[in-house]
Design goal:
This protein has helices spanning 31-34, 49-56, 75-78, 83-88, 129-135, 139-153, 161-172, 269-279, 285-290, 349-359, 406-424, 484-503, and strands at 40-43, 62-65, 96-100, 106-110, 123-124, 178-181, 189-191, 193-194, 217-220, 224-231, 238-245, 251-255, 263-266, 282-283, 297-298, 304-307, 310-312, 317-318, 324-329, 370-375, 383-386, 397-398, 440-441, 446-447, 467-469. With 509 residues, it is α/β, with parallel strands linked by helices. The strands form 8 sheets. A 5-stranded parallel sheet has the order 9-2-1-13-25. Strands 17, 18, 19, 20 and 23 form a 5-stranded mixed sheet that branches. Strands 22-21-16-24 form a 4-stranded antiparallel sheet, covered by helices on one side. Helix 2 packs parallel to helix 12 (484-503). The structure holds flavin-adenine dinucleotide.
C-alpha cells in the first residue's frame, strides 16, 4: 500500500487553460511529488479518459495514466495535412500503434495523450437519439455533455469545391433533405463537425484537461499500466490499484484511497480494455490458464464480440452505402496500408510501397479531389480478441470477420446500387465493389459483448468491486455514426454522473 517513487516520468499535469495547448508547460516532475492515494485512478488518457479525468477532478483526487506522450508538440498529430504520417509511422515512439487483424486488414490504435482523438480523421457528430435511448442514458445530461465538449474542441469545417459537388450529387439522387451544418445524426445530407480548426490544427481530448482542477489532478505520460491490482480476500474481488511502468521500464504501484467509492477506471480503448482485463485475471478461464495468469474472475465474455466498421473505397473516385457515405479529402489510404486494390492478405509492406511509388506518377490534379467511402454503420459481423502473450506493449490478436454476416453484405450491395446512381448523376467517375477482397477498416474498432459485465458499484455478486470501464468497449452497437463525439461526451457524462451519484447536488459541476 505504498506509492513507489520514480524520478523519470514526464507529467503533463497542472495545466491551466492556456497551458493545456502549449508544449512549453509540460515539465518533468517526479512521481514522488504526486504521492499518496487517489480517489480515482483512470487508466488511459484517451478520448473518454481525458474528459472523465477533468470532470472527476472537480471534487476528487485523480491520477490519469497514459502510455503515450503528449500530442501538443507532435507535428504529425497536430496538423490535418500530416494525418497519414502519424498512421504511417510504425516506430515504437509513434502516436499510433499499428496492428493487423487476423482478417489481414491493417488498422491503428492510439498511443498518445488524447487517444484516438489525436490520430483520427477528426469527423465529429453526435449519436442518433435511438442510440442514447437504447443505452439508457439520461437525455438531459447527454444534451448538457455534448456542448461541454463542443465548445472547447469542435469546429465547423470549410468546404472544398468537390465536396460541394458531392453534396449536390447526393441531393440529386434523393438523399435529402439537406440539413446544412449540424452535429445531429439525422437522415439526409449534412455537413458534420470536425476537431480540426480552420487552420488545419487538431484539437484533441487532451485539451479538455484544461477544465480540470489543477490541484486535484495528476497526469502521468509514458506510464504504461501492466495490470490492475485486486484484493481477493473479500466476498468479491476489489480493484485497489494498478501496477505500471515508466519509460525506463521501472515499475510503480498506485492505489485508490481507502473508501469503498474509490475506483480504478479503465479507458484503454477497444483493444486495450479487454487486453488489460485479461492481463489482470478477468476473462475466459481457458484463455487465462493458457498464459498462467492467476484468475480473479472467470468471465467468458471478455474479448468476445469485437466489431469494426468495414469500409470500401476505391483508390480514387468514390464508394458509398445506404448506411453512411463519407467523403474524404485527398488520397492517403495506401500510405497507411488501407489498400483496397488488392486483397487484405496481399497488402504487404512491399505492395504498399509499390503502390506509393506508382501513385507519385499520377498527375497532381488527381489529388485535388478526394474519395467517397461507404461504411457499414452497424456491422453485424463480429470476431474476438485473444492474448498473444502477457506483454502489455504487444498487440493482442483480434479478428473482426468482416462480411461474415449476410446482412453486412446486403447493406453494402444496396450502397453500391446507390453509388451507381451517383455515377449516373455524372459528378463522379469511378466506383468500387464490396467484398472481403476490397475491404478496409474505417478504424472505429469497438467491442460489443463485454458491456456491463464489468462492474460498477452494484450488489451483483458476479461483479468486481471498485472497477469500471468508460470507453468504446462499453458500446453494444455502433452509435449509428462515427463514434468519437459520443465517446468524448460519454467521458464528461460519466464524470458528472459519478460525482452526482456520490455527492448529490453538492457536486461542483
Ligand atoms: C485512424 C483513425 C481514424 C478515425 N477517424 C474517426 C473520425 O474521423 N471520427 C470519429 O468519430 N471516429 C474516428 N475514429 C475512431 C475514434 O477515434 C475512436 O473510436 C475513439 O477515439 C476511441 O476512444 P476510446 O476512449 O475508447 O479509446 P482511445 O481514444 O483509443 O483511448 C485509449 C487510450 O488508452 C491508452 N492506453 C492503452 N493501453 C494503456 C495502458 N496499458 N496503460 C496506459 N494507457 C493505455 C492509449 O494510449 C490511448 O490513449 C478513428 C480512429 C482511428 C484509429
Amino acid at each position: 500500500m505504498q506509492v513507489v517513487a520514480s524520478t523519470s516520468i514526464h507529467t503533463g499535469t497542472h495545466l491551466s487553460n492556456q497551458q493545456a495547448r502549449s508544449p512549453r508547460h509540460h515539465r518533468r516532475r517526479s512521481y514522488q511529488e504526486t504521492g499518496g492515494r487517489y480517489d480515482y485512478i483512470i487508466v488511459g488518457g484517451g478520448t473518454a479518459g481525458c474528459p472523465l479525468a477533468a470532470t472527476l477532478s472537480q471534487n476528487f483526487s485523480v491520477l490519469l495514466l497514459e502510455r503515450g506522450g503528449v500530442p501538443f508538440s507532435n507535428v504529425n498529430v497536430s496538423f490535418l495535412s500530416n494525418f497519414h504520417l502519424a498512421l504511417a509511422d510504425t516506430s515504437p515512439t509513434s502516436a499510433s500503434q499499428y496492428f493487423i487483424s487476423t482478417d489481414g486488414v491493417l488498422n491503428s490504435r492510439a498511443r498518445v495523450l488524447g487517444g484516438g482523438s489525436s490520430i483520427n480523421a477528426g469527423f465529429y457528430t453526435r449519436a442518433n437519439a435511438g442510440f442514447i435511448k437504447r443505452v439508457g442514458w439520461d437525455e438531459k445530461l447527454v444534451n448538457e455533455s455534448y456542448p461541454w465538449v463542443e465548445k472547447q474542441i469542435v469546429h465547423q469545417p470549410t468546404f472544398a469545391p468537390w465536396q460541394r459537388a458531392l453534396r449536390d450529387s447526393l441531393l440529386d439522387v434523393g438523399v435529402s433533405p439537406f440539413n446544412g451544418f449540424t452535429y445531429d445524426h439525422i437522415y439526409g445530407t449534412k455537413v458534420g463537425g470536425t476537431i480540426f480548426d480552420r487552420f488545419g490544427r487538431r484539437h484533441t481530448s487532451a485539451e479538455l484537461l484544461a477544465s480540470a482542477d489543477p490541484k486535484k489532478i495528476t497526469v502521468l505520460i509514458h506510464a504504461t499500466v501492466q495490470k490492475i491490482l485486486f484484493d481477493t480476500s473479500g466476498k468479491r474481488p476489489k480493484a485497489v490499484g494498478v501496477l505500471f511502468k515508466d519509460e525506463n521500464g521501472k515499475q510503480h504501484r498506485a492505489y485508490v484511497s481507502n473508501n469503498p467509492k474509490s475506483e480504478v477506471i479503465l479507458s484503454t480503448g477497444a483493444l486495450g480494455t479487454p487486453q488489460m482485463l485479461m492481463l489482470s485475471g478477468v476473462g475466459p478461464k481457458a484463455e487465462l490458464e493458457k498464459f498462467k495468469i492467476p484468475i480473479v474472475l472467470d468471465n467468458e465474455f471478455v474479448g468476445k464480440g469485437m466489431a469494426d466498421n468495414p469500409m470500401n473505397a476505391p483508390s480514387s473516385g468514390y464508394g458509398q452505402s445506404k448506411d453512411s457515405i463519407h467523403c474524404h479529402h485527398g488520397i492517403m489510404s495506401a500510405e497507411i496500408g488501407q489498400l483496397s486494390t488488392i486483397p487484405p492478405k496481399q497488402r504487404t509492406p512491399e505492395a504498399v510501397q509499390d503502390y506509393i511509388r506508382r501513385k507519385r506518377e499520377l498527375p497532381h490534379e488527381a489529388f485535388k479531389g478526394g474519395f467517397i467511402l461507404e461504411k457499414i454503420a452497424k456491422p453485424m459481423s463480429t470476431g474476438e480478441l485473444t492474448l498473444v502473450n502477457t506483454n502489455v506493449d504487444d498487440n493482442p490478436s483480434v479478428s473482426f470477420n468482416y462480411f461474415s454476416h449476410p446482412d453486412d453484405l446486403k447493406s453494402c450491395v444496396q450502397g453500391i446500387r446507390m453509388a451507381a446512381k451517383l455515377v449516373q448523376s455524372q459528378h463522379f467517375l469511378n466506383y468500387t465493389k464490396c467484398d472481403q477482397q476490397t475491404v478496409e477498416s474505417i478504424l472505429n474498432a469497438s467491442v460489443k459483448a463485454n458491456v456491463n459485465l464489468i462492474p460498477k458499484h452494484t450488489n451483483d455478486t458476479k461483479s468486481l468491486e471498485q472497477l469500471r470501464v468508460v470507453d468504446i468497449s462499453t458500446f453494444n452497437e455502433s452509435p449509428g455514426t462515427n463514434p468519437q463525439g459520443t465517446i468524448l461526451m460519454m467521458g464528461r457524462y460519466m464524470g458528472v454522473k459519478i460525482l452526482r451519484d456520490r455527492l448529490g447536488k453538492t457536486a461542483g459541476v
